[in-house]
Write a structure and sequence with these properties.
Elements (H helix, E strand, L loop, with lengths): L1 H36 L3 H13 L5 H13 L3 H14 L4 H11 L13 H10 L4 H24 L3 H34 L2 E4 L3 E5 L8 E6 L3 E8 L2 E5 L5 E5 L3 E3 L1
């Protein structure tokens, strides 16, 4: 009885804490929106940042935070938070439009090398769903495989046996294919380590030390991919394929 009372008390406190946290974050969001509409962009940023500090992450908070930074001509932070919003809502038209405006403020003009052929085709398929979604689809077809196989095993009709056997094989094949897509998506996500340059200007070196040659310069707001880490250096890759080493403090990982 005492155990049940303790559990009830814990759940009640947990529920109340969740309601209070939601109420506080909702209040901060509304305050931030009002400050933004009044042109108090820095004050609005403070409110939105407080929501993030409370552990609440949403595309709406990141989007409004990015808009406030954009109004203050903060190139790197605006692009960074638009990108964070896109991670949660990649197909949102407003976010995609605004991040395009923010990118136009950057100095570095880097043309993305387009992928062609089978690799592009496979990536387009694999990126259709998340790792978890592909996994759930795989499990669903595996369940169908079991059901069709049981039907094949227990039925006496030759026609039904033939159909059940074919459907069980198809379900098993699709399940394995979906599982392959799930692991492929996991691999792509693991390799995808984007970051935004926050330094106004930074040198990209040929090796992870200050004595090495400068390969090229980068400026704030440029998006890169992190390939490796050595001490306080990051090996990066640009959309055009160029690589080099940059001081870790000049980047902010997404």
């Amino acid at each position: 009885m005492k155990g049940l009372m303790k559990l009830y008390l814990f759940l009640s406190l947990f529920f109340v804490a969740g309601v209070l946290a939601y109420s506080q974050n909702d209040s901060l969001f509304k305050q931030g929106n009002k400050l933004y509409n009044d042109g108090e962009y820095q004050a609005a940023i403070t409110k939105y940042q407080k929501i993030l500090e409370n552990g609440k992450h949403s595309a709406e908070v990141y989007f409004n935070l990015a808009n406030a930074h954009y109004k203050l001509n903060h190139i790197a932070p605006s692009i960074y938070y638009y990108e964070k919003a896109l991670q949660l809502k990649p197909n949102d038209n407003d976010i995609n439009n605004n991040v395009g405006f923010a990118r136009n403020m950057t100095i570095d003009a880097i043309e993305k090398v387009p992928e062609v052929g089978f690799s592009r085709f496979m990536k387009s398929i694999v990126n259709t769903f998340s790792y978890n979604t592909w996994g759930m689809i795989s499990i669903g077809f595996m369940i169908l495989f079991v059901l069709f196989f049981l039907t094949y095993y227990f039925t006496y009709s030759t026609g039904k046996k033939r159909i059940s056997f074919v459907l069980s094989l198809c379900s098993f094949g699709v399940s394995l294919t979906m599982l392959f897509f799930a692991f492929s998506k996991s691999g792509l996500d693991a390799k995808d380590q984007p970051a935004i340059v926050f330094a106004q200007e930074t040198q990209v070196k040929s090796e992870p030390n200050l004595r090495s040659n400068e390969v090229f310069l980068l400026h704030e707001g440029t998006k890169v991919q992190i390939l490796d880490t050595v001490n306080n250096w990051k090996r990066i890759k640009l959309a055009d394929g160029k690589t080099g080493w940059i001081i870790a403090g000049d980047l902010k990982a997404l």
